[in-house]
Amino acid sequence: MRKLKITEMNRLTPEAFRESKKIPLIVVLDHVRSLNNVGSVFRTSDAFRVEAIYLCGITARPPHPEIHKTALGAEESVDWIYFEDTHLAVDKLKNEGYEVCAIEQAHGSIMLDKLLLDNTKKYAVVLGNEVKGVQQSVVDNCNYCIEIPQYGTKHSLNVSVTAGIVIWDFFKQLLE
């Protein structure tokens, strides 16, 4: 096998990306403090044609060199909006007909491997702070919680890793 050269990968231009069909998914970052995590979420969102990212609270926003370092320009292709308060973002999404899902370990959460999405619906996933997770009051306002099954000794995953796993699963289920 021979690795592909960048010129052989037939990637979209940023302009073509903006015009392309997106999956009906918005990623909400609730007080994510690491700029590298923010950049990574932009890059993953670009890879799987996420509709937009909502940056909330203390979550940094572009342009910023630390975001760019991991986003590698995806912060220029993926649409984003800043909200001072995550609750406002969730309320906006629910009013626009999105099913809003907190990605959190909670009583009654749906395990990601058991989640069945309806490709006629629009979804938003809320990912939380690296230490505290999604705010409880935001969890309370979501339609439901999704949890990634884990089988090791640690109780959580890095937020950018979580985003990658969840976005990939939504992409597989929502891609027409």
The CATH topology is: Alpha/beta knot
Just name the CATH architecture: 3-Layer(aba) Sandwich
CATH C-level:
Alpha Beta
Q: Quick one: CATH superfamily? A: SPOUT methyltransferase, trefoil knot domain
Q: Termini, distance in Å? A: 30 Å
Please count the helical segments. Answer: 7
The radius of gyration over CA amounts to 16 Å
Helix and strand succession? HEHEHHEHEEEHEH
Shape: globular
How many strands appear in the DSSP assignment? 7
Q: Provide the structure class.
A: alpha/beta
Helix content: 25-40%
How many separate domains make up the residues? 1
What does this structure look like?
With 176 residues, this protein is α/β, with parallel strands linked by helices. It has one domain (21-174): Alpha/beta knot, CATH 3.40.1280. 35% of the residues lie in helices and 22% in strands. The protein is built from seven helices and seven strands; from the N terminus they run H-E-H-E-H-H-E-H-E-E-E-H-E-H. The chain has helices at 14-19, 35-47, 65-71, 74-77, 86-95, 136-141, 159-174, and strands at 23-30, 50-56, 80-83, 98-103, 110-111, 122-128, 144-147. Strands 3-2-1-6-4-7-5 form a seven-stranded parallel beta sheet, sandwiched between helices. Helix 2 (35-47) packs parallel to helix 3 (65-71) and helix 2 (35-47) packs parallel to helix 7. The two termini are 30 Å apart. The model has no long low-confidence stretch (mean pLDDT 97). Residues 25-167 form the tRNA/rRNA methyltransferase SpoU type domain. It comes from Parabacteroides chartae. One of its GO terms (molecular function) is RNA methyltransferase activity.
